[in-house]
Amino acid sequence: MRSKSLTFPLLILSLAAIPLAAQTAVKSAHGDISNAQGTKIGIAKFTPTANGVKVTVNVSQLTPGEHGIHIHNVGKCEGPAFTSAGGHFNPSSAHHGANNAESPHPHAGDLGNLTVGQNGKAKATITIEGATMGDGANSLFHDGGTSLVIHAKADDLKSDPSGNSGDRIACAVIEK
Ligand SMILES: [Cu+2]
User: Fold this and answer.
1) What is the pTM assigned to this prediction?
2) Residue 104 lies in a domain
């Protein structure tokens, strides 16, 4: 109880400071990962780095194996199909997949595959190359926002537009 009463005023103070800081640079973002039924099954955390934005994904209740994982171009996750998330976040209009025969490739929203263990859980840290959390087309917070989507099947890392990775089974709106 003692620590709680000390923490509370500090929390108010730091919350009051956020609007000022947010105007210059977003230092972190997050997204609650929901499945098609709308159940929260995980969380994604985003932090800017020198060459992009680092995302840490922590998710459970998925089928074991490889699942395509991408940043999609609209920050809207309406289940069960999550088509509201739009196509891939692809500000450079590149082809999909690290092994795509066409050049240039891959694109920013291409995060490859997420490996889910036999227990249905997955943890991964991936860099969204070239993405920012500031202003402009490369920003995860461009007009309309972005989302993180997990697919039913593995991404083949070469097929446009989404690596043949099948249905969208989980989605998180990326939020400041
Ligand atoms: Cu996708």
Assistant:
1) 0.86
2) yes
Give pLDDT tens digits along the chain (176 positions).
444 455 555 545 555 554 544 445 788 999 999 999 999 999 999 999 999 999 999 999 999 999 999 999 999 999 999 999 999 999 999 999 999 999 999 999 999 999 999 999 999 999 999 999 999 999 999 999 999 999 999 999 999 999 999 999 999 999 99
Domain for residue 15, yes or no? no
Question: Containing domain of residue 84, as a range?
Answer: 26-173
CA of 63 to the centre of ligand 1 (A): 17
128 Cα to the center of ligand 1, angstroms: 14
The rounded Å distance from CA 3 to ligand 1 centre is 43
**23-60: burial string, b at 16+ Cβ within 10 Å, e else:** eeebeebbbebbbeeeeebbebebebeeebbbbebebe
**Side-chain-facing half-sphere of 78: CA atoms under 13 Å:** 5
Structure tokens at 79: 């289940």
* CATH code, domain carrying 41: 2.60.40.200
